Amino acid sequence: MRANKVRDIWAKGGGVINGWLAIANSFSAEIMAHEDFDSVTVDMQHGMVDFQAAIPMLQALSTRDVTPLARVPWNEPAFIMKILDAGAYGIICPMINTREECEKFVGACRYAPEGYRSFGPPRGLLYGGKDYAAKANETIIAMAMIETRQAVANLDEIMTTPGLDGIYVGPNDLAISLGYPPNPEPEEPEVAEAVATILAAAKRNGVKAGIHCPHGPSALDKIKKGFDFTTLANDARMLSAGAAVEIKAARGQ
């Protein structure tokens, strides 16, 4: 089966730099794939991407040596299985608050006996290879999003779920759950403390820790602090930011 670059980087003790696709377009996905990301995630929760748009985006990502991941809209097994069948090599699942919810999520990512994923990966076989059935369980990545006060209270129970590879901090929702305005860079002391608590729990339980970051310096800071997986904003934000810089330059500002 085709190797999962994210797992390879983790095995060497490195930190993954992940791209994020909110624009439902295969060409923009292909452009991002040609940059130096280790993995790129198709965002089907808050991005403008439905299943039919996701397929050509995954195909565009496969033109380069970048691991294709997907964030699903919710902890819905049918949707998780379907995007895995389409060739995603890992799932980031939002709003995992309890051990039971995490078991449901991980089970949908794994074939029996480790889980209950149904077999029939038409594009998964094309992308992954003929031995997909035998090696998918050890290759596919399952990352549970930790982004609420309830999840922080249940960290050890969630992170000891068999088959869970990692957790992913959603800073905006975490801030909202703790009573603060959304902020992609945790600044309120209580939010920053919660992020540190989540990271410590991940290290304690032997799972990888990921987090969404607003820009490169933030990602570097998080990797230095011990995070194993960092995302740089998203394609829409990068497009907007790049355009703003050039417009100001053109206006002499």
Helix content estimate: 40-55%
| Rounded radius of gyration (Å) | 18 Å
Number of strands: 8
The shape is globular
Structural class: alpha/beta
Describe the model.
Helix 3 links the parallel strand 2 and strand 3 (67-71). The chain has 253 residues and is an alpha/beta fold. It has helices spanning 5-11, 26-33, 51-61, 77-85, 99-109, 122-128, 132-139, 149-153, 155-159, 171-177, 189-205, 216-225, 235-250, and strands spanning 16-21, 39-43, 67-71, 90-93, 141-146, 166-169, 208-213, 229-232. It has an 8-stranded parallel barrel with strand order 1-2-3-4-5-6-7-8, surrounded by 8 helices. The model has no long low-confidence stretch (mean pLDDT 98). Helix content is 48%, strand content 16%. Helix 2 runs parallel beside helix 3 (51-61).
Q: Which features characterize this protein?
A:
253 residues, 8-stranded parallel β-barrel, alpha/beta, single chain
Please outline what is shown here:
By secondary structure, the chain is of the alpha/beta class. It is built from 13 helices and eight strands.
